[in-house]
Design brief:
This is GIY-YIG domain-containing protein. The chain has helices at 3-13, 39-52, 58-67, 87-105, and strands spanning 19-25, 31-36, 72-79, 108-109. It is of the alpha+beta class. The protein has a single domain (15-109), classed as 3-Layer(aba) Sandwich (GIY-YIG endonuclease). A hairpin with a 5-residue loop joins strand 1 (19-25) and strand 2.
Length: 112
């Protein structure tokens, strides 16, 4: 098996890790909290929409436009153990943990 095929196989077999993350602005101290089914790919998605100017959260997009990419950091706050959970149960657990982190960090919820 070629190294490329081995990497492709490993990627396909990798199980997504759900969890809660924060996007922090170093200049303002603001934190924006979100939940995702796949932490490994979430930062790329958030950064992509911010660079295009199309992020659905206007406060985050405004801070990005004002301070630029260098002022922001992506941080994994918590991974979710979803063993035995159906999709609805996983979504409820993510929502509960996202709410917890929003309250703990006095952060903006990216879903709202």
């Amino acid at each position: 098996m070629t190294p490329r095929k081995a990497l492709l196989r490993a990627y396909k077999e990798e199980k997504p890790q759900p969890g809660v993350y924060a996007v922090r602005c170093a200049r303002t101290g603001q934190a924006f909290v979100g939940g995702t089914e796949n932490l490994a790919t979430r930062q790329n998605g958030v950064w992509f929409s911010l660079k295009l100017g199309s992020h659905p959260n206007a406060r985050l997009q405004g801070a990005w436009n004002t301070h630029g990419e260098a002022a922001f950091a992506f941080e994994v706050l918590e991974t979710i153990d979803d063993a035995g959970l159906e999709p609805k149960g996983r979504a409820l657990r993510l929502a509960d943990r996202r709410k917890h982190w929003c309250e703990t960090l006095n952060a903006v919820d990216l879903v709202r």
